[in-house]
Each structure stands twice: as C-alpha cells, then as structure tokens.
Amino acid sequence: MKKSKTKILLTITVLAAIVLLLFALRSGNEKTETLVKLNASVTFNGERITVSNNDTLDFLNVEMTVNGFYKLTGMNLHAGETYTFWPVEFAHINGTRLPAKQIPQQFSIWCELNNGKNGFYSQKLNPKNTTRKTSRAVMFNLIL
Q1: pLDDT tens per residue across span 99-128
Q2: Residues with Cβ < 8 Å from 98, sequence gap 6 or more?
Q3: What's the CA gap between 5 and 67, in Å, rounded?
C-alpha cells in the first residue's frame, strides 16, 4: 500500500514538473514575440543628442540609455516627433550624470507600445563626427 502511494506521488510530481516546464517555455516564447524593432533615429552633433520617433506608434514609458549606464526614463515619445537632449540629462543609477568629457557612443531605447507590445532600438553613434565643441567661448559660458 505504501509503495503504491509513493509511486502515485512520484508520478504526480513528475507530471507537475513537466507541466510547469512547458508553461515556462511557452510563456518565454510569447515574450520574444512581443518585442518590436522600433523605427527611430538618433544623432549626436557633438553637443546634443537628437532622437526621432519615425514610427506610427507612440513610444510609451521610454527608457533611453547612453553608453550602457546613463539613463533617462519615464518619457513618452510621440509618433513623428523629434526630441533633443543634453548628454548631462542622462544619469547613472547611483545618481551621477554622464560626464561632460565622455562622448556618447551607444544609444538604446526600450519602451512600451500602445498595442501591448514592447519596443527596442539600439544604435552605435559615430564618434568620428561627434567631437565636442570646446572653444573658449563655450568653456566661458559653462563657467558662468
């Protein structure tokens, strides 16, 4: 009698593990299908970062990241709109801002879309064309 209870308990445990594994694999596949490549563009002119939403959908609850660590979060980027940011607006999780001497080289966007999916965009910025302007007039204005 004890052996049959043990066999039944073992069988139920194995079946439960299989069902949980199948459920986990199935839900993992659904998550990858909901990730959409965003139609956006990003440029850095040496002073400011310009982000354009070239898509037909709004980018909601956006998380923009520069160089993998400095983020700007919680914005909505409306379809067809262009936004301009100073690099110092991006902050590390510890609160420090993107250092003025650090040139943005990588930019990414994670967001929610109003169709229930999530969006992602990533672009390597061209450091050759992004030398910061450090004329005396600019430096003088920064000191004041």
Answers
A1: 888 888 899 999 999 888 899 999 998 765
A2: 66, 67, 70, 87, 88, 90, 91, 92, 104
A3: 58
